[in-house]
Design brief:
This protein is mostly beta strands and 216 residues long. Helix content is 4%, strand content 41%. It contains one helix and 15 strands; from the N terminus they run ββββββββββββαβββ. The protein has an eight-stranded antiparallel beta barrel. Strand 9 and strand 10 form a beta hairpin. The radius of gyration is 18 Å and the shape is globular.
Length: 216
């Protein structure tokens, strides 16, 4: 058995030793997974059980679509050190005419998968700003992004590298884990379709991969 690799990480005036890097890979199914899209054209519609989600704006009409997604990180102790994190979404179809940058923002609302819409995050509770991007709804600085061309290779996984500190905050409890809002900087004719956790094909459901070290 390999000996643990000790890594000295300064903390205040002393230090903490961490063991070798480990990986947690989450790819939940429709029962455990939490994701949905919200749409401006069906502002009261919920898509929490749909097998697909969309991010961007529909070319053939006026329909802005954003995705909410959350992963259960409760299996990680609060004192682990996150070294990297990657969100992987399987892009099924390209409906885009324009390039875009899709950003991941940590949500501040405890939204409910089977209730959230463009107008509300749960039954009886409105977003501060419809679409979930108000300052009281989510952070205004992203913790990761991906640049998409106007013509991406599909079907294929697209990866968003998340800042370790952003994920660390959820695990340590400095910010409640309400997951992410995924939206492009500009929302005009740049729609892409992705598999959700409810997709029947298990290996293309959303993935969160977290690499971390445990204190020795």
């Amino acid at each position: 058995m390999r000996a643990a690799i000790k890594v000295l990480m300064p903390m205040g005036g002393g230090g903490v030793q961490y063991g070798e890097e480990q990986t947690l890979t989450l790819q939940p199914d429709g029962t455990a997974g939490v994701d949905t899209e919200i749409r401006s054209d069906t502002a009261t519609g919920n898509y929490g059980t749909a097998n697909i989600v969309h991010i961007g704006e529909y070319n053939s009409g006026i329909s802005v679509r954003r995705t909410l997604i959350k992963f259960d990180l409760s299996s990680l102790a609060a004192n682990v050190l996150v070294t990297s994190a990657t969100l992987k979404l399987y892009c099924l179809s390209d409906f885009a005419n324009n390039a875009s940058i899709v950003r991941a923002y940590r949500l501040l609302r405890a939204w409910v998968e089977t209730q959230a819409t463009w107008n509300i995050y749960s039954t009886g509770n409105n977003w501060a700003t419809a679409g979930g991007f108000g300052a009281a709804d989510c952070e205004q600085t992203d913790i990761g992004s991906i640049s998409l061309s106007a013509s991406e290779a599909t079907p294929a996984f697209k990866e968003i590298t998340l800042t370790p500190s952003g994920v660390q905050g959820w695990i340590a409890g400095t910010l409640a884990n309400n997951g992410l809002l995924l939206k492009p900087d500009t929302e005009t004719d740049n729609l892409y379709q992705y598999a959700s956790s409810d997709h029947l094909t298990a290996n293309i459901r959303p993935i969160l991969e977290v690499r971390y070290r445990v204190p020795l």
